[in-house]
Amino acid sequence: MRKAELGASLGGCVLVLSSLVIIWATRLSVPRELYVSELGAEGMPTAGWFEVALVLIAVGGSAIAWAGRRVRSKARVLRAWTPAVSLWIGCALFLFASQVTCTAGCPLPYGSTFNVQDFLHTLAAVFAFAAACWAMLQSSFARNHRVLAVFSRVTGILVAVIAGTGGLFSLFRFEQELGSRMEFVATTLAIAWLVVFGAVLAARLLRSEPDGSALHELQETVRQSH
Predict the structure, then answer these.
(1) Which of 19, 127, 132, 145 to pair with 91, CA 20 to 30 A apart?
(2) For 29-48, b where at least 16 C-beta lie within 10 A, e where not — what string?
(3) What does the alpha-carbon distance between residue 184 and residue 208 come to, in Å, rounded to a whole number?
(4) Quick one: which of 197, 204, 201, 203 has its CA closest to 156?
(5) pLDDT digits over 41-82, tens only?
(6) Residue 142 pairs with which residues in a beta bridge?
């Protein structure tokens, strides 16, 4: 079971990190400021790659969540369910958002151009971010995971503040260029947190092997690849 969990955490990290590379590669290919969801909007040349990135987040995040299903919060108000459940909810919503994209231009959630498809995509994206932030908050009070707890606390606050501010800028059409950059920063931080979450799990699993066999096998694999 530990080897399966190790594989899930490491494999999940690779998939999630790949999604971040794709998101930034597609972002840099567009010569204007835009919000994250616009990369997958109908008619955008980056839409296909953005869909791949969201699917990678969903699959990789779900694998990491499974490997970390035993992580629990010590705060009573946060332990109704585990961070893994919050991650699975967020991953399911990101998967939904990858298939139900916003229409051309990703209209704001009001006005004549905004429709049901845009509403569903926006709703899924907002709640997916909320689920990720909740997982960070839960992990910030994780039992016996001090490094993860501190990192989660800092990252969770940053993501919530930056994403919330960027979203409000977009909603009120205020400093939209700055708002779009803030959203990309928040997205990067959230994905980086998920990678660190998986890496911490993998490190714990490697150290917990009584004979060090898992670490030895990993070193052998790396040695053979070179």
Answers:
(1) 145
(2) eeeeebbbbbbbbeebebbe
(3) 36
(4) 197
(5) 888 999 999 999 999 999 999 999 999 999 989 888 898 899
(6) 73
